[in-house]
Amino acid sequence: MRQLPVLVVHGGAWAIPDETIEAHLNGVRQALSRGWHVLEQGGKALDAVQAAIETMEDDETFDAGRGSFLTCDGRVQLDALMMDGATLRAGGVGCVERIRNPIQAARLVLEDSPHVYMVAEGAEQFAAQHGIKLCRNQDLVIAREVERLKEAQAKAAAGHPDTTFAGAAFDKGHDTVGAVALDADGNIAAATSTGGTLNKAPGRVGDSSLIGCGCYADNQSASVSCTGWGEPIMKLVLAKWAADCVQGGGAPDAVAQEAIYYLERRLNGHGGMILLDQRGRFGIAHNTPRMAWAYRSTEGEKTGVKVE
């Protein structure tokens, strides 16, 4: 059965500053354009979400790829996941430091490995063995993030409340990127990529690259990509929770709203979600001040910075 393709992308849910709104809009539009080009040529949902994510990993506006937030010791550590709704195959990488586009490594794990998840040096070695050129970690670090880390650590040393991992203060940086797609063959896919949280401990892995937490796809339910404060999202396995609600009969727009309400009500968590089912119905929700997003189908394109 042929379907009308759909693509939805997000560039993170947080308190996006006024002066960076246009950069976020441009970023999600470019990602949408590249991913949609795949779909309109009859390409697979997996290829479309990968193209969209790669575009945002290459854009220093977002917390993914080059320009990501730094760990407390000044390094970039990246996480990513892809999932194929047709087969339930998934591939994820965590804490990689020498891969410019971790979503490419995640695709290799999905297709060329018997595993679902690989981390750190092992993931890098696997990627290099399969043709990905490794970079220096310094190549992923930019001056903006060095200054941001210094400021965060100075505030932490002074006991400033904005350095806590709770409440609205944590909205100050969640540019995790994600994409969900439906292709003409009726298959759905999801992908998410992130540099994690600012000033995080080395080795910390958030929800974005964990199957069912920040990313999930199943043709029988929905494809989901989350963004936000990872620890509460992980505890609720939120992406799978939302997909199950759709499979139980919920409409994606209502389920996305309910999922974010559940996140806040149960654990005082905050973030955002995009959700798409096999019928092309989608939902976008967040409880942060703003969330950058873009949507396209054969009926047209929509982009914006959604305000709570």
General description of the model:
The protein is of the alpha+beta class and 308 residues long. It has a single domain, classed as 4-Layer Sandwich (Glutamine Phosphoribosylpyrophosphate, subunit 1, domain 1). It is 33% helix and 24% strand. The protein has 8 helices and 12 strands. The chain has helices spanning 21-40, 45-57, 102-112, 120-129, 143-157, 230-236, 238-247, 252-267, and strands at 6-14, 78-84, 90-96, 117-119, 177-182, 188-194, 215-217, 223-228, 271-276, 282-286, 290-297, 300-307. Strands 4-3-2-6-5-1-11-12 form an 8-stranded mixed sheet. The protein has a 4-stranded antiparallel sheet with strand order 7-8-9-10, covered by helices on one side. Helix 3 (102-112) crosses helix 4 (120-129). The longest helix is centred in the N-terminal third of the chain and has 20 residues, at 21-40. The chain is globular and about 55 Å long. It starts with 5 loop residues before the first strand and ends with a strand.
